[in-house]
Give the backbone structure.
Amino acid sequence: MVEAAAAAVVVREYDGESERDRGGVEEVERACEVGSSGAGKMCLFTDLLGDPLCRIRNSPAYLMLVAETATGGGEANGTEIAGLVRGCVKSVVSSSTQTRDPIYTKVGYILGLRVSPSHRRKGVGKKLVDRMEEWFRQMRAEYSYMATEQDNEASVRLFTSRCGYAKFRTPSVLVHPVFGHALEPSRSSAIVPLEPREAELLYRWHFAAVEFFPADIDAVLFNALSLGTFLAVPAGARWEGVEAFLAAPPASWAVLSVWNCMNAFRLEVRGAPRLMRAAAGATRLVDRAAPWLKIPSIPNLFAPFGLYFLYGLGGAGPDAPRLARALCRHAHNMARSGGCGVVATEVGACEPVRAGVPHWARLGAEDLWCIKRLADGYSDGPLGDWTKAPAGHSIFIDPREF
């Protein structure tokens, strides 16, 4: 149990067995628009489907904290939940290198910070972050980091101005709707499904020097929510197993894995212009009237829908973006069969295969990752202080915390 008390705020561990805690957390979540917000702005709203721990429970170590404040009477114990935060700890590759020898560092990741609108500007958010950082230190994490949208000024200001974080990386969330018809597979590429152990070998070889690549990638790939890993190579290339591939890879190739978010949360587009809603509805009407035309009908994104997340996106060679596009089409068809509304991925600002990822700019987001070194007593690693390291071309996005 993690506890801390200030004059009117108590930060403690969330009790998943308590109906009062579950109800209080749900009330805070409902009061906070998760995602972009603002009058007249289109945004993705997230519903966690009643499981507050769904975004962290697959991580190797995790914690959820709530902040209680006095109500002045009226509720049991005279308190109410005013805010919450989630966090997890894991070992990841720190800093990009030119070698294939991974340099792992233990980090804490802060996500899902929420403060009820009626309790904002009272220091509740900072108290939650401070207490989460204490747990990170107890777990021997050397760095703490968080992600938010670049235009979320309140969140950026809290972490950079009040909590001592530095702006670090700027990956992009790329989102594409799942059309009513399957996409034609690429004729110039071949897609090879990989077993989890094969995917692990390939990932440890390719991502060994990529920032935030998790040491426990095997736990990710063998998780039941990971629906498969797929390798794209030029059509006609012979597949003789992953060992032969690693020994002599083709001139160009691409890889990605698919993660099922359907049972974790639902998304919903809000604030879309009426014209966009009408146009999307028209594509569905035409598709139903003339299905043989295979109109790329847009799903109803203005009601709750699920998604598949594409992770481990990477590759090499001049044709890697084209091969990545073939993989995204394959993932689109998987998502269509799974009843998803969209497929999404997140890529680094300079990711080489980014150009091959089909997406709709209006559905995506530009993220900002901020980082903080937790203890000056730690010695610098082989690459020095990670918070000052220049960005590499790629970044690994862990699907467990998307």
Summary: Confidence is low (pLDDT under 50) at residues 1-7, 34-40. The CA atoms of residues 380 and 386 lie 8 Å apart.
